[in-house]
Amino acid sequence: MSDAEQLKGIREAYDEQYGFSDPEVYVFKTRKGLDEEVVAQISEVKGEPQWMRDYRLKALEIYRSKPVPTWGADLSGLREDDIYFFVKPAEREARSWDEVPETIKRTFDRLGIPEAEQKFLAGAGAQYDSEMVYHQIRKELEAQGVIFKSIEQGLRDHEDLFRQYFGTVVPPHDNKYAALNAAVWSGGSFIYVPPGVKVEMPLQAYFRLNTANIGQFERTLIIVDEGAFLHYVEGCTAPTYSTDSLHSGVIEIIVKRGARSRYTTIQNWSDNVYNLVTQRALVYADASHEWVDANLGSKVTMKYPSVFLMEPGAHGEILSIAFAGRGQTQDAGGKAVHIAPRTTSQIISKSICKDGGRSSYRGLLRVYPDAEGSKSTVVCDALLLDDHSESDTYPYIEIENPNVTIGHEATVSKIGDDQLFYLMSRGLNEDEASAMIVNGFLEPLTKELPMEYSIEMNRLIQLQMEGSIG
After folding, report:
1. Is the pTM above the cut of 0.90?
2. What is the C-alpha separation between 114 and 98, in angstroms, rounded?
3. Structural domain span for residue 323
């Protein structure tokens, strides 16, 4: 088979698995635009307690009071009045795959959700537009007290636990789009891992935007109790429409004493999605949290996974990758905040630009006065694949204690003619040689992914390299 035939097959497989869209099927849909009536309607449809309704309405006030950020990517194209803020795709959430409506089931069959469960993942959830349509967890984990439910079901079934932690990591006043999420959140996961329980195989959630002009505002809340372990994997896709959509999620994670957690995201949005996400973990004594964050596609991404190291011995790692193609802006990076003594962190950010795309590393490293003996390393590398793409670095480093060890380095490089010549002299054509260099550049991230996700990541990168996405 020729190279052209192979690439054609990959493109067709991508369109089949990700690029399709289904006819809209829903049981409830708000009108376009956002006001108190829409927010109250969302709360009413979900049957929420009064305190949550009041919380949403207060968050709406905060959202309105904050200006649109002007320090990052251009958000002037966002039109609030053109967005549906809530689309309910099914009457109720299914507890078995057989209960999922057929139209939605066909979508997730194509995305591999049943296949994921067959691979013995610990649990799987699927979100379609505004709500989770499916959630399931292995019985042995449920017997150990592990909770893995939709965020709505978590509120209904575990209200006291939910209320104890909800909004404590990312409060509505944190930023404009965190406030928007707090006002209109819908869908996402609620996870609790009891003390000492090790969830050895990953829990998984998949988020699918199907409706045009929709906003998706999932909210995920994860509590990993003392000495426990969790790996959560999230994937996201959307078809391409002629109009813009908004994805604005919030992820809150609490990692208690001696626990460990990892949150892996592979987001492959179409190039008409504004992807504005706030994700933050509070890490306590001798605990650790890792963000593994891959961003492909989207029109604009602004996302900065963060770790707040709250007590001595806490550790945080952020591994971020962004790929910006034609007409795309990837403004990504990470934040590490050292509040307690003897805390450690590492931020590794890698970006690739082609066809005039723009990537930015935007990171914050802050060391509080009491964080004596802390250590942190920041590395940001950018790879430009042509002469008209752009890469920027905006590192913010604020150190308030003199007895710490801090390292920072940044590089920007291009694929060199000598590299291509060397690989092509070994029998590779130019496209294959370029792809090999890019794969080597991204190897620190792909080696951290589960096998099936690593394969999928390499496949998506190959498609991006050929300019066939979007």
Report:
1. no
2. 10
3. 25-415
